[in-house]
Amino acid sequence: MPTIKKNNTQYTGPLSLNNIIKEDMVGVASILYIKCNLCGKINKVKTSSEHRSGQRGRLTFNINSRAVLGSLQAGIGNTHLNNLFATMNVPTMNNRTFKS
Q: Which residues are in the Mutator-like transposase domain (predicted)?
């Protein structure tokens, strides 16, 4: 059961996947925008944790890095990985995401 915080405007509690307003796909990962049933706030939820490539590199989703490493270990590149994803009805990964 959600609880009301002191300022009476923010709640803590579960979000419902039925309330997804928008989904941004970044390779295999997604960023979901979910509206709270109680307060109406839009919450940004990432489907994978992130890491920084190098000290100053941009943030990269772990699931994307793992997909790329797995494909390279299997001896396939971006095109073959995307063929596999397409066969499984999973969104494909663009070349820029594959290289990052």
A: 5-99
Exposure letters 46-75 (e unless 16+ CB within 10 A, then b): eebeeeeeeeeeeebbebbbebbeebeeee
Pairwise CA distance, residues 31 & 26, whole Å: 8
Report pLDDT for 5.
Answer: 52
Query: Could you tell me how far CA 52 lies from the centroid of its own chain?
Result: 15
Average pLDDT over residues 82-88: 92
The counts of H helices and E strands in the chain are 3, 7
What letter would DSSP give residue 19? G
Contact yes or no for 83/93 (Cβ under 8 A): no
> By residue range, what is the domain housing residue 60?
17-99
Classify residue 14 by its DSSP letter. P
Concatenating the DSSP letter of every residue in 60-82 gives EEHHHHHHHHHHHHTT--HHHHH
Structural domain contains residue 1:
no
